[in-house]
Records
---
Amino acid sequence: MTSRYRPNEPTSPVPLDVLSLLMRSEEARVAEIVRQLSGGQRAALAVYCFARAHMRSLGLQIARHCEGRTLVAVGGPMGQTMADQVESGEAFDVGPYQHGTRKVTLARFAA
């Protein structure tokens, strides 16, 4: 039986004060902090951040300082996706442009 007070999410691979600092820091400071971690810790932190929508860009910043094979070993398919995105330089949130789609407005249907 599991405790009802046990969190349902995995815990951060770094202390929460370090994670908080990373979230508030510029990219150069993130690189400086991340370089102090081991390769496995870096990859685990990158995967941890990438798995959360509000920290996805931070996850990719951290992934830039990881080896691709370490990301894949730690994150599986998600790690492979991160490694591919880092290698291509493609933004994580850019989707294909859809031609011909019109925005729906309420005013058009209110008559």
Note: Residues 19 and 42 are 12 Å apart (CA to CA).
---
Amino acid sequence: MLTTDHFILTCFDHGYKVRVSTLYHVLVGKRTGSVLVYAFFYHQMRYFGLLPNLNRDVYDDVLARLVANEFLLQDEATVQLTLKGQRELTRLRALPTENICSHRYLKIDDEFLDLLLFATQVISHLAYVEKDYTPIEVRVDKQRFIRSWLQSQTSDRYVLAEAFYQEWFSLLTKLPIEEATYWTKRLSGHEKIGRTSHQLLTESTTDAFAVFLCEKNYQHHLLSVLEQDIVHLPMMRSLRKGLTHHPYNQSMLETVKVIKEKGTLEAVQTIRRLKYSTVVDHLIEWAIYDEHYQTWFSLAPQTVAKLKVYEKQHPMIRDWRFKDVQAVLPEIEFYEMRLFQINEIRAEVRR
């Protein structure tokens, strides 16, 4: 089986009957409320925006092959994993995707790793007082960024180099040997030219998509370790904070800020002059991203109680339609239903 086919098949391993087109929109990173909710409901958020250039015809061809092989069952606009498909996934070797978290590291993974490797090269040559070398980063804005970042660090080049070396050592010891070896071979500096990701990963496979997945898996694991270690990696973390790109919708972040300050959606609507539906979309999006959002915005206990009763009568919570909920509970608002679903599915995963 082609790696692309294998990957798409794994995206249906949740077993639910779902719309054919929505997974495509998840993979290319279409940031709409319905797409984000789908990705969260069916545990595909980590693949959000992973394949921004995926051609729709290519996606449809993959689905057609999977349906033809009876790994998926297609019924008009919906598709579902079959028992044969489940067995095929069990038989196949797992793809290197366990650390991929595209919705968190979208747009920053390549940029940060390029800067980290370039900073390593510059610091290494600084330690040896070497100015005559070919930089691995040729973009002027990135060179300027590293120059500015270095000015915020200690002026003692030897202390700087030793501290950065210790951070790399600390980081690498937290990674599996295979990943630590990969990153070590990527490093350039004094009397050392690092190898490219393509050079290293094509030693074990010539499958371009498998190489891509492996690279993203390594990148996102490193970024995850960096996020979690707030003690031993201060220089690397400061480099990360300086990035201009972030994966979140800036307008959504502004909405969240106002909700935290004012406490109501109506206040956001007035202050930011947004449609109420847009404010609701922003709230739902952040609830998907932030599992701790209830510390500053939570549903009223009576609302939760009513929806709990409705859930007992309609346990397939992913299939709820707002018009059906409103027919029974006309006082419930759309965002209340969505937040309740998000909370319940999040709790389901934890169990």
Note: The chain has four domains: 3-95, 109-241, 249-293, 299-351.
---
Amino acid sequence: MSTLTIDASKLKNARKKIGITQQSLAEKVGIHVTNIVKYENSKANPRNDVLEKLATVLNTDLQYLVKDDCEKNEIVNKVDSLTVVIEEARNKIAELAQVSPDKVNIQVSF
């Protein structure tokens, strides 16, 4: 089974909506409070069984707490497209410079 990705802001909002602290949520779920802090700050992702417990304790739907796969797929598609563009550029540069494509290094910075 693949691990679902928690939406940190939705977790935090659901916790605040029922008025409990991170410590209280951790105790009810049976995990350490540092895990809740990490989940709410997108520093870690809970196992699926923990995610299910979080949804139960927070009285919310599991699907509400997870990130939409469409969002992830969109990012993956953009990265794949960028990879294709870079490879095409590498081949064109190699052709113009009359060198092997493995001799062409392209660096992308954001």
Note: The chain has two domains: 8-65, 72-103.
---
Amino acid sequence: WTDRGLNYLASGKGCHRLIYLDLSGCTQISVKGFKALSIACNEVQHLIINDMATLTDSCIVALVAHYYKLSSISLLGSPHLYDSAIKALVQWRKLTKIKIDGNKHITDNSLKFICRYCSQMRILCITDCPRITDVGLKFTESLRNLIVLNLADCVRLTDVGLKHFADGNSGPKVRELNLTNCINISDFLLIKLVQRCTNLTHVKFCYCEHLSDNGIELLGTLPNLTSVDLTGTTMQDQSLAALSTNSKCTELIISECQDITDIGLQKFCHRSINLNYLDVSHCMALSNQSIKTLSFSCRLLTYLNISACPKITDLSLQYLIGGCHYLRYLDISGCVRVTDVIFKLLKKGFRKLLFLKMLYCTKITKSAFDKQMRANIQCEFNNFAPPLWYGYDGLGNIIKKEEKNQEEEEEDE
């Protein structure tokens, strides 16, 4: 789309009652074009303007001048907007959903405007905005109906700011909370969440390195929790076993949790019969024993990612065929001990499998793949050696840090 097309839209007789408009990636549109669009389509309720590096405050002011019925807007990947644009956007409008991502200019003032003018906000996503601090979160106390809060990559947030939110009107109502890479939060926040946010169903605490087993264990006491993402945390078997006290959990992601072993996963699986989504990729201590327990305890599993688990062999796949009859997605990338036997197993089972990922499977031959791979399965395959960041070689031997650094230096040269 360009300004010319929007001028046609403004002067024509059609499309004046549009309620949904997506202008993502239309970087040719200028302030003039947005102004014409505002006049032509003033019934718009849902507006999406993602991936617009050319979007400025003037564009937003011109666009929303006549959008009094606007209820949701997405501004992902618009790095040149300032607080003034957010103020113009939310002022005198009853927005219930707003998404902003990758912006280094907006500050706590934007949160102040959002919370002042949009007290009925239900979905608030402000991600990768490093100037958002605890001061801004204090304004969220006034929001009454917030059910989704996504503050991923807002790295300056701490327990203090998030406590303000939990103690606010929406604390007991919030269902989804994403604090990925909010590296300053600690167990204190989890204690507050368990006390106040009892309706939480989805939580993400990826790479929150200050969370300990004592705090993570508390998540198992949330009565409605169904999805947990703890990627890259320091959790151990003790807290993983404690999570299984909630029988409603259907989705667990613990990728890159290096301290997780067979013992912890086995204890979790024994009590998680409703699990249908599991990602344990890059948990290098896991072996066939935990997959055996998983296969016969979690029979409703539809998604499984065991990539970069070098101890996994063909035996694990035999267990999965025997127990997980509903599996639709399987990722065994980097399972360097899996061999061509997998193709025989595919003939016997995995009838519902739709997608199979087998990158860096060094013992699976290209000839066997070409001849025996089932045509009805979408597959990604190569048998290259695993990349250095996997942490082990093509035989499954762990690469020490000194050796890894030396090889990386040789590659750079």
Note: The longest helix spans residues 401-412.
